[in-house]
Amino acid sequence: MTTLIRPARNAEARPGERGRRRLPGARSGLWLWPAAVTLTVVVVGIDGPQLGTDELVTWDVGRRGTGRILALVQDVDAVHAAYYLLMHGWMAVFGDSHLALRLPSALAMSGAAACVALIGARLFGRRAGLCGGLLFALVPAVSRFGQEARGYALVVLAATPATYLLLRALDRPRSGWRWAVAAGAGLAVATRPSSRASEPSEPSGASRSSWLPVAVGLAVLALLVLPDQSRMRGAFEHDVPHAADYAGAARMIEKYHRPGDAVVYVRGAPWMLDQGVRYYLRRDLSLPEVFLAATASENAELYPTHCGRPEACLKGEGRIWVVVPGNGPDALEAVPAPQARALRARYTTYGSEHLSGLTVALLQRKP
C-alpha cells in the first residue's frame, strides 16, 4: 500500500551524497520535459481535423457578446459558462482559426502533463514522475482532447494540480497548503516540486545507464501508438458519427457563388450544419438565410427559429443554395415539408453535389 505521507529525510546524507553537484535545471526538468513533449505532440497536426459539432458550438457561442453568453447559460450549457467566457476573450485577441480555437486545450494538456510528473514524483520518486509525465504525452486520447476546442482539457488541468496540492497538504496538514486546496486547487498549475522532495544529485555512470531501458521503452511505446496518433488527426475525427465535409461545401459555394444568392441550411445529423458551413465560408461572403426568423444568438439558444409560412419568406431570390445532411438522391427530400413545397413551387434543381456526410444543391428560380 502506498504511503501518502512522505517520511522525513535522514538528518545525515547517505554515503557519497555529500559533495555532489546539483544538475543545472534538474528541479525544473521534472515537469518541464513532460510539459514540452506533450505540447509538441498535441500541436502537431492540430489544424488538420475539421471542426466537430461541439467545437462549432464553442465558435458560435464564443463570438457572441458577453451579455448574450450569460443569457444563454441561464438555460443551456451552464456547465460550460466559464469556458465560453474564456473563449470569448481568447477569440477576441487571437482569432478563430483552427489553431487559435484549439490552442487553449493544448496548453491545458501541457500543464496537466507537468502536474502528472509532479504527482508521480511525490508518490513514487523522481524517475517514476518523469516517466509518468512522458507516458501521458504519448496517450492518443491526450492528443485527441488536447486538439478539441472544448473544455475537457481544462477539466484535466483543474484535476491534476488539485491532486498534487492535496498530496502537499497531506505532507504538512497543519500548514497553509490545506487552505490552498480548499480555496483554489486546480485553478493554477504547480510549476515546481518542493525543495525537500526533489533536489537530485548528479547521477553516477550506473545511474545514467539505468535510464537507457526507460528511454528505449518510451521509444517503443511511441511507435506502438503512432497509428492511433495518426488516426486522431484525420479530417473528420472530431465529427466521427457524421463526417460532414463543411469545408468542401463552403468551397463549392464560393466557387459558383453569384451576388444575390441565398441559402437554406437543414439541421439534422449533424445539427450544427449551418454553423459548420458558415465557419469555412470566407468572412466577406454573407449568404442570407431564406427561412430564418431569428438566429440562435437572438434566441439565447443554440437553435435558430424559422418563419412559420415559408412561401411568404421567399423574396424572389434568383438562386438558392440548399445544404442538407446525408447523400439522398433529391436534396429537397431532406428539407422540412412546408419549406420543400414552397421551394418546389418556384424553383428547379440546377445541380447538386454529394460530399462526405452532406449534399449541396443549387436551385434556380423558374422562369
Give me some keywords for this one.
367 residues; alpha+beta; 4-stranded mixed β-sheet; two-stranded antiparallel ribbon; 6 strands
Explain what you see.
It is a single chain. The protein is of the alpha+beta class and 367 residues long. It folds into 2 domains: 26-195 and 205-238, no CATH class; 246-365. The protein is built from 14 helices and 6 strands. The protein has helices spanning 26-43, 53-62, 66-72, 81-94, 98-124, 126-138, 140-146, 152-171, 177-184, 205-231, 246-256, 273-280, 310-313, 337-346; strands at 262-265, 292-294, 305-306, 319-325, 347-355, 358-365. The strands form 2 sheets. Strands 1-4-6-5 form a 4-stranded mixed β-sheet. Strand 5 (347-355) and strand 6 form a beta hairpin. Helix 1 runs parallel beside helix 6 and helix 11 (246-256) packs across helix 12 (273-280). The longest helix is centred in the N-terminal third of the chain and has 27 residues, at 98-124. The model is unreliable at 7-26 and 188-204 (pLDDT under 50).
